[in-house]
Amino acid sequence: MNSSIPNLGTSTRGAFASLVPPVWRASTVVFDSLDDFVNRRTRLPDGFSYGTTGTPTQRALETRIAELDGAAHCVVFPSGQAAICSALLALLKKGDHLLMTDAAYGLAKSFAVERLQALGIEVEFYPPRIGADIERLVRPNTRLIWLESPGTVTMEVEDVPAITAVARARGVLTAIDNTWASPLGFAALARGVDLCIHACTKYMGGHSDVLMGSIATNDEGLYKSLRGLQSQMGLAVSPEDCFLVARGLDTMQVRMERQATSAQLIAERLAAHRLVRRMLFPALPGAPDHALWARDFRQSGCVMSLQLLDGPYDAYRALFGNLKLFSIGASWGGVRSIAAFYPAEELAKRNFCDVRGPVIRLSIGLDDPQALLDELQGALRACETSFNL
């Protein structure tokens, strides 16, 4: 009697087909022979040798994200921050010089300062609107230029083609955090970027219930390095999480179209409010960097920032206290609307920032846009008495 456990995923494949991708769980991968086991590492970067490097569920998701990014390869990681740190660790070594936009995600910056510098890597922040002038900052040991466009909180749009042209001419690699726009809004690799990073937690997952990051590239050498690092650091990604992100991709386009339309309406109305001093939303005509956004982006995201007239902290407490449809939180890109607050002191720590004072960041979900606007206008009325008008 054969006591081996049948491979149901294979034996039933011809008899069962589904629109839903299967979830393959595994830690140990088994081999057909001793030679296969001894040579298991030769299966990477695409094949399977142990659970930390993925299962067919993960590979299927990586293939879909690569197609969206116009890439040949993709590696997913347990979170967006894990993808950011892995890209930096895979590309940089002692003695290298990193140029990073001053508008980058806060944890990316702190990782560069606190961890990479401790490893002997030189870290320098550049003004996000530097464009082709970044050439003056490139050194003989510059290895990587890190972009994020628009910036996480202050929404500066970088001239990505100008920066990547300089980088290629000088033999420097480029990587971009493209989470704000997603592959649907900005084709980063087509604009000359070497590595495109997404926090799949945001638009791709879409429901605020999963953490994941991705790195896409057309460079096979970089891909092998990233997959090797994933294996060495044990950065396994749950197949259930891969399933959730794959499901989110099915609706990402329609969600983003709705969210972008709602965001545009809300930004236009808020810009006319007498308490709003400045809208930071590049898709809005007249906003900072709108011309650059219109040149390079196919659609906007759902995230905007705004600044109010000078007022006390109690005014913001009153405003946030009157939010019901908007939850207070740090993330964005999901179906629920979210509001976040960034104190003036936090922005003042940056080297190159023309935004002075507190910032409110809004993520527009799938709620009725008029209901969201009514709530925001009501919240502004609740804090109006705190302003000297």
* Count of folded domains: 2
- Low-pLDDT ranges: 1-12
CATH superfamily of the largest domain, by name, is: Type I PLP-dependent aspartate aminotransferase-like (Major domain)
Order of helices and strands: HHHEHEHEEHEHEEHHEHEHEEHEH
Report the principal-axis shape: globular
Radius of gyration: 23 Å
CATH 2nd-level architecture of the largest domain: 3-Layer(aba) Sandwich
Order of neighbouring strands in the sheet with most strands: 1-7-6-5-4-2-3
CATH class of the largest domain: Alpha Beta
Number of helical elements: 13
What is the rounded distance between the termini? 87 Å
Largest sheet: 7 strands, mixed
Portion in strands: 15-25%
**Helical proportion?**
25-40%
What average pLDDT do the residues reach?
93
Give a short summary of the structure.
The protein is built from 13 helices and twelve strands. Helix 4 packs parallel to helix 5, helix 4 crosses helix 8 and helix 11 runs antiparallel to helix 13. The relative contact order is 0.12.
List the helices and strands and how they pair.
Layout: H1 8-11, H2 34-38, H3 56-69, E1 73-77, H4 80-91, E2 97-101, H5 106-116, E3 122-126, E4 142-148, H6 160-169, E5 173-177, H7 182-185, E6 195-199, E7 213-217, H8 220-232, H9 239-271, E8 276-280, H10 290-296, E9 303-308, H11 313-321, E10 327-328, E11 338-342, H12 344-348, E12 359-363, H13 369-383
Parallel strand pairs: 2-3, 2-4, 4-5, 5-6, 10-11
Antiparallel strand pairs: 1-7, 6-7, 8-9, 9-12, 11-12
